[in-house]
Specification:
Number of helices: 26
Largest sheet: none
Shape: elongated
Distance between the termini: 13 Å
Length: 622
């Protein structure tokens, strides 16, 4: 015991304490690295989050600033840009559309229409935006449409004023879309196909728009523009071939209704096949004949459309249609965007100056890397080294984490195994209890007692048979003994009645064994003393009457029957002398090597930690 204690103390001093020191050092290093990495992660995440928060707050102003910069690149003055920005915010808040898309549309308008001042640029852009909302078209399409219309009706725009003209175009187009169940995209495609041909012939905008709108009832906008363009191209030669006048004194083409009336006067309200062929030869195309047929079918409706569109002034109709389709939630979102863009746009120039300085600093750093390559390499190695040290600490944390996970897994496995063993123990206890209950039930059954009694009786009879010779030698032929023999024979007879039991032995008449018969034959031939005679000569001397009997010259002890050998004196059983000596001699007292020591005290002033206690248990376990 003392050697084991000394060994444990030695292991604790020589191995456990150094290992504990190493473990504490590794744990301390890992904790420091872990804390450092956490601080770095938290700090970096906070810095990045702050940067993203600032950028998110400034993003509306940044996006507006980017679009304004694009427009500024076209030579637009700062005053015009301020007015454009204010108009964009008002438009987005009123109709729920994007302010940045508004400014982007102004770039396209300024590129298509040169010479717009600040107010005109804002009016064109707003009219395009309102028309796009009213006709369910995208802003870029309507912006392109406005540029096309300005190119077609440039003289009219100069006479009316660009701002007033663009509002009338927006209102007239919105009315046409409503009247002819078309869209802004289709109207843009129709006028793009026609181009300036109708305007060159002196046709008013309202008439052109009414004709193209009426044709779109049965065809697309681009196809309507193609047919109208074919009619315009052939009207000059057609009047000579048909001997009709389609122009006025100034050479301008008559209104479409006047031309249709002249054609009706010549061919009637409907055209036959031969008449269609004549018109095709006169106008030079099938497209022109198709237009004439469609418009001749409803000249009164065409006249009403032309008159209605001629009455449009401004873009009131477009504003009504756009307002009816405005989503209030989109208005709220656009207003919030406008507020952030306006608020942070005021401080964005200062922030842009700081950001620009930072970018300039990066440029200087790039130049230094080229000017001082050795310093650049040193800084690079330092950065990589710092990252590598962080990787070492991270790897250590990973290893310790894996070790803890494996330890936890082993604990779970051990706990599961203990649970299984406990379940087995519970099952064993349950089986034991069940066995006891079964035994109790069996012993409570009378049949069990009967069977047990029969087994005990058979065992008793067996014992009597085994010891019967000794009992008979002890009691002889007494009346008590004869009664016992009869009783045993009666019991044997009853037991033999049980299936499976067949005892042939009887106490009253014991069957003679073959060995006993051999003994009786020998004893009949000679007196019992022959068992002690060593040879035949001595035997004949003691029994003269037997000399005539032929006997073997010598009887060997091995040839004698078993009963005779047992009765020889040399075959008498005896106890070994060593056993007798051991039994008779006094038992020596046993001594043991006993060492006595004084009191042993183990002083633990600082107590034991759970880890030390666990190590102590492991050492005790060997």
């Amino acid at each position: 015991m003392i050697e084991k204690l000394l060994m444990q103390i030695g292991l604790n001093d020589q191995i456990t304490k150094p290992l504990q020191g190493i473990t504490k050092q590794v744990q301390s290093t890992m904790n420091a690295g872990k804390q450092g990495m956490q601080d770095m992660a938290v700090g970096g995440a906070g810095l990045v989050a702050s940067g993203f928060a600032i950028q998110e707050a400034l993003m509306p102003a940044i996006e507006m600033d980017r679009k304004i910069g694009e427009v500024k690149s076209l030579g637009v003055t700062d005053d015009a840009l301020k007015q454009l920005t204010q108009t964009a915010f008002e438009f987005s808040s009123e109709y729920g559309k994007s302010a940045t898309d508004f400014v982007a549309a102004s770039y396209d308008i300024q590129s298509a229409i040169a010479g717009l001042d600040g107010n005109e640029l804002s009016q064109f852009t707003k009219a395009s935006g309102v028309l796009a909302a009213a006709t369910k078209a995208d802003t870029s399409t309507i912006t392109s449409y406005m540029g096309t219309m300005y190119g077609i009706f440039k003289n009219q725009a100069e006479e009316m004023g660009k701002g007033e003209w663009v509002e009338q175009v927006a209102g007239m187009t919105a009315s046409a879309v409503q009247m002819f169940k078309t869209t802004g995209n289709e109207m843009s495609a129709a006028f793009t196909s026609v181009g300036a041909n109708a305007t060159s012939a002196g046709i008013a905008m309202s008439e052109q728009m009414a004709i193209l709108g009426t044709l779109q009832a049965t065809m697309s906008g681009s196809e309507a523009g193609t047919k109208y363009k074919a009619f315009l191209a052939g009207v000059g030669t057609a009047q000579d071939k048909l001997n009709l006048k389609f122009t006025d004194a100034q050479g301008n083409m008559l209104p479409m209704l006047d031309i249709l009336d002249k054609l009706k006067g010549k061919f009637g309200d409907t055209l036959e096949v031969t008449e269609s062929d004549a018109l095709k030869k006169a106008f030079g195309s099938e497209e022109a004949v198709s237009l004439i047929k469609l418009l001749m079918a409803d000249t009164q409706g065409l006249a009403g459309s032309i008159e209605a569109l001629g009455q449009v002034k401004g873009m009131t109709k477009a504003e009504e249609m756009a307002g009816a389709m405005t989503d209030q939630w989109e208005r709220l979102e656009a207003s919030w965007f406008a507020v952030r863009a306006a608020v942070f746009g005021a401080i964005l120039p200062s922030i842009n100056a700081v950001v620009g300085s930072m970018a300039d600093g990066m440029v200087y750093l790039t130049g230094w890397t080229e000017e001082f390559p050795f310093l650049t390499q040193v800084l690079g190695y330092v950065a990589i080294g710092a990252l590598a040290l962080g990787g070492v600490v991270a790897s250590l944390s990973l290893v310790m984490g894996i070790a803890r996970m494996m330890s936890a897994g082993w604990a779970v496995t051990t706990g599961t195994l203990n649970g299984v063993l406990k379940l087995l123990r519970i099952n064993t206890m349950a089986m034991t209890a069940a066995t006891w209950l079964m035994n109790a039930a069996l012993w409570a059954n009378p049949i069990t007692w009967v069977i047990a009694g029969i087994v005990a009786l058979v065992a008793a009879v067996g014992a009597m048979i085994y010891w019967w010779d000794d009992l008979k030698a002890a009691f002889g032929d007494t009346a008590v003994f004869k009664f016992l023999a009869d009783t045993i024979d009666w019991v044997i007879d009853k037991l033999n009645m049980i299936p499976g039991i067949d005892i042939e032995w009887r106490a009253g008449e014991m069957p003679e064994a073959p060995a006993m018969k051999a003994v009786e034959q020998v004893e009949k031939a000679a007196p019992p003393a022959i068992a002690t005679l060593p040879d035949a000569a001595t035997y004949q001397a003691q029994h003269p009457a037997m000399t005539a009997a032929p006997l073997p010259e010598q009887v060997s002890a091995d040839d004698m029957p078993t009963a005779i050998q047992y009765k020889r004196p040399e075959n008498t059983p005896s106890v070994p002398p060593s056993m007798v000596q051991t039994m008779t001699s006094p038992t020596p007292s046993q001594t043991s090597n006993i060492r006595q020591y004084g009191d042993v005290y183990i002083d633990a002033p600082n107590g034991m930690t759970p880890d030390q206690l666990a190590e102590w248990d492991e050492l005790n376990a060997g």
